[in-house]
Here is the input.
Amino acid sequence: MAVGIIGCAGRMGRHNLEVVLASPGLRLAGGVERAGHPALGQDLGILAGREPAGSVATDDLAGLIQASDVLIEFSAPEPTLEHLRQVAKAGKALVIGTTGFSAEQVQVLEELARSCPVVWAANMSLGVNLLLGLAQRVAASLDVEWDIEILEMHHRHKVDAPSGTALALGRAVAAGRLVALDEVAVRSRDGITGARPEGSIGFATLRGGDVIGDHVVMFAGEGERIELAHRASDRKLFARGAVRAARWLAGRPAGLYGMSDVLGL
Here is the structure.
């Protein structure tokens, strides 16, 4: 199976290259970057921290789409949607690890996924996807006297907040309580805020250093507290999840899938 990497010189792009190159049964179809990127012309194996692969980074997205069975992309929402349009037009498949989509952009993504198979997940980690299921089950088991807070921390370079994973956890616990997250979410607190609204789901965001990703879901009751946590220590775990998703996605019918589908959860 031929796998193409979009954004191949980015932090996750390099890990995606590395995992594809190391995976039996997969062939690296190529990697692309935006026009003018300093990595253009560099060997993809060198970008991945491995031996030369014999192919270089280009800005020929159309060529990469044609050469690939499945493509993987971790980038920004706007370019991801534009790339998805081209993937859908060619009838290929795309694994998306991009976060930070607005509600309107999610609608566009869902519409485009009617034309091609897409796996989109805020987090490609097996552990995080297990955490999502656990958080929903716990929320469904506890009444609104238990306050829910979601804490996340990432490296100083992350540009969106709360993280896509934190929002996914928020949607999971909201689903457990049979409410819409947008109606109960509290994303910031400053000054004299008054008492905590019953049934609200709070978010706290921390940024600093090189933290790959920490997430904690807290259920705070009277005299006791439950905490479900996941801490990532190796960014390659997201690439391994993305490659697993790519293997699973090949040959699937058009539609929008998640990591719960990939992992059989």
User: Anything to note?
Assistant: The domain at 2-120+235-263 is CATH 3.40.50.720 (Rossmann fold). The chain has a mean pLDDT of 96.
